[in-house]
Amino acid sequence: MPPEALKENLYSFSSDVWAVGVIFFEMMKGCPPWRARSEQMLYSKLLNEPIDQMLTDIPSQCREFLTKALNISVDERLTIQEVGKWVDTFREIAAG
Fold first, then answer.
1. Least crowded by CB within 10 Å, which of 14, 35, 44, 55?
2. d(CA 47, CA 44)
3. Which residues of the chain form beta strands (DSSP E)?
4. 3-state secondary structure of 92
């Protein structure tokens, strides 16, 4: 659940970008970005623990994408169009 949904019960395309970021993180690391024993603790971690601290062991381009896709600020998060450009970038990397 994106931070804006927790704080203000708001959902938008930016919320979908957040979801893509979470899924990509799980693909890269094999676990969710934030884990806790209760929902309340999870919400607290999600709102207070920046993602960049969890990305030290992944490639720089992936780290950059995740930092932008999982930005707590909706205004600073990637747009859907920017996600599309990143998909093209990752496709080029995979093709060699």
1. 35
2. 5
3. none
4. helix
Q: Is the pTM of this model over 0.85?
A: yes
Q: What is the pLDDT of residues 48-80, one digit of tens each?
A: 998 988 898 999 999 999 999 999 999 999 999
Q: What Å distances lie between residue 89 and 9, 61, 62, CA to CA?
A: 32, 9, 10
Residue 11 structure tokens: 């959902």
Complete domains list, the chain, with CATH: 3-95 (1.10.510.10)
Q: What pLDDT does residue 4 have?
A: 87
- Using CA atoms, how far apart are residues 82 and 50, in angstroms rounded to an integer? 21
Cα separation, 17 vs 92, whole angstroms: 21
